[in-house]
Input
Amino acid sequence: MNSIFLGLLIGFLIFQLAIFSTTLYLHRQLTHKAVSFRPIVNEVFRFVIWTTSGIRPRQWVAVHRKHHAHTDTMEDPHSPKVLGWKRVQLMNVFLYRKVAKDGKTVSNYARDLPQRISDRLFYDHAILGLGFLFAGLAIWFGIITAIVAFTFHSLLYLGLSGSVNSVAHHFGRQSFKTNSGTNVIWLAILTAGEGLHNHHHAAPTSARFSRRWYQIDPGWWAIKVMAFLKLANVRHSDVDKLASRTSQIRNLLRN
Ligand SMILES: [Zn+2]
Ligand SMILES: [Zn+2]
Output
């Protein structure tokens, strides 16, 4: 096979691995506690996140919890309402880094995720993780394929993670008018369900982002398979029930 085409194919597969680990592990489990996985599964996710993105989970969790707590206000780390959707799309990685580097935000919003010894030794060193992936690709498939795969994966991961924060707060449909998130089908297909962002903001603690069986939520399908294999334990999964409970609580707090 042509080494560039092979690189694109491998890059796309690595991107999917990274995005599934992001939505299942960083988002649905660590941030919102909507699901829990067996310890061995968590370690696999941890390793995949390290080698494919270099993200520190406690930083990602803190930035995302802050986004939920202050959506569309000046405190929101990446609000299209405040900054404009194009700026959030293009600057997402910088907006993320600015808040992630703030130790106070991380200790306030992710105090349940202290730094572990393995973090200090390995996982907090992004270059080491990403270098491990790149070296593995180069040894296995050759340097050209490795460069193409790594670049393609990085562009997809950074670009589409940005789209969840920009496009899915600006374009698309809304089932719930209680939040500014939107549902964008093509984005949900590419991001393992993250594009169903309106449902997610309405019911953040739901492990399932879809409301109907025909709605595209590959992350939820993966959780169902893992639950069947006794690798995952779902806490909540009914978007409608959780959404009405959440809006009742909001109304009580407002009155
Ligand atoms: Zn959002
Ligand atoms: Zn969330």
